[in-house]
Amino acid sequence: MSVKIPLKPVPVLNFISGKFKAGSGKIQQVHSPHNGSVIGDLHHSNSDDVALAVQEAAAAQKKWAALPIKERSKVFFELRHILMRDLHEIANLKSSESGKTYQEGKAGLLKGIEVLEFATAIQNLDVGGRTEVSRGVSCEYRREPLGVVASITPFNFPAMVPFWTIPNALMLGNSLIWKPSEKTPLTSMRIAEAMLEAGLPEGVLQIVQGGQEASEALIDHPDVAAISFVGSTPVARKVYERGTALGKRVLALGGAKNHIVLLPDANPDLAGVGISDSFTGCAGQRCMAAAVLLAVGDVDLHIQKIIARAKSLELGKDMGAIISSQQIKFLNQQIHQAVQEGAKIILDGRNAKPPFDCINGNWVGPTILDGVSPDQEIAKLELFGPVLCIIRCNDISEAMKIENSSRMGNACSVFTSSGALAEKVISLASTGMVGVNVGVPVPREPYSFGGVGDSKFGHGDITGISSLDFWSNLKKVTVKWDQQQDSNWMS
What we know:
Layout lengths: L9 E3 L1 E3 L2 E3 L5 E5 L6 E6 L3 H20 L2 H17 L1 H12 L3 H19 L1 H4 L5 E4 L2 E9 L2 E5 L7 H12 L3 E5 L6 H13 L6 E3 L4 H9 L3 E7 L2 H13 L3 E5 L4 E5 L5 H13 L9 E7 L3 H12 L13 H16 L3 E4 L19 E4 L16 E7 L2 H9 L3 E2 L1 E5 L3 H10 L4 E4 L15 E2 L2 E2 L8 H5 L1 E9 L11
Parallel strand pairs: 1-5, 8-9, 8-11, 9-10, 11-12, 13-14, 13-19, 14-17, 16-17, 19-20
Antiparallel strand pairs: 2-3, 4-5, 6-7, 7-23, 12-22, 15-16, 18-21
């Protein structure tokens, strides 16, 4: 199914206390990566707009937190129904502004709904555990919200990444201010409408549109207790440093340079599809994309399968567009530089033919470079495009030494038929997520998402059980009512 691009631009507005309102800053055009057309006019927010959002969120949060958790959960059960009902519409909208294919847009929204389903289970998962710890003395914990929190999300997953944070943070009794990417803001307004229809009280979710000024105002505001961020490593580091310097709780996910170890005993068909789909899916614009193929020994048959699979993809149908013309220019420069330094192009997508009605869009086809050196910039820098670099290795030890040299530690996979060799890669990988015969090793709920090293700044993970501690405080309660006959240190 092809993506239907909006025919005329819509105003992209803030969502404050249940109403859409224009920000006070400049107006910026939002372009569809598919064909370059203008699909939105974004009104940027300044510090005053952010301050109003925080003020309204703080007022709404007290009443929201006072509701029993089972009452709060009813909103999210209804929200899931609405999102499933409007799945086609929202998937198409998010695809039109992010460059994804329709199927990728649908899959991303479904993954976000999966995290929403986890949030609805918190009422049964997190019960406090009251225990009699000594004669006549009991202890329990009570999970309490932080207050007003914030989430700053990237362009590549306009619905999935926000749903990594919004449901859990709100379910725990916080109010949340969401700053979507200025490149893909339309989806946020559609989600706001769904939240309102589901019965979320006005002010519990606020949305401020804009760029760096809005993000910095959110981070700096004294009443924002915690900030989550997903984006590039340089920006993630700055967000973490800025927020923690102010004494705030920050979890900032950065970029990735994911490695796949390909062993000769791998199933060629499984590896061919898995590795190709990993680096071409979402046009490589995801932190879980394969970036470097560590080819151990004689795996030329497997590589031919990868090439064949990638060659068969049709732009617009099987693979989406790149977010901007600037990113196309960056990818072309990196490919050219790598060739100048000795790499060989075995699949060149720089002149790939776009769909007939999208000649003004941002398109590049799957590209594979062989004979890449570990020291080359293209082997170390996050590209965010459908480019796979092949580094030839003599054995697993050499491959894992290269993998371990990366400062980023998001994900690593291995393709093999040997459980022992798979276990060796699992144990040696310097990443937060590892896959075996899986090109995109994204954990499913309740297993949490998150890397290590320069792929994550802060503690815990952004989804799953470990995310609950980020969005809340634990109040420990010790109770004693009667004097006991015997005595101990708790008397």
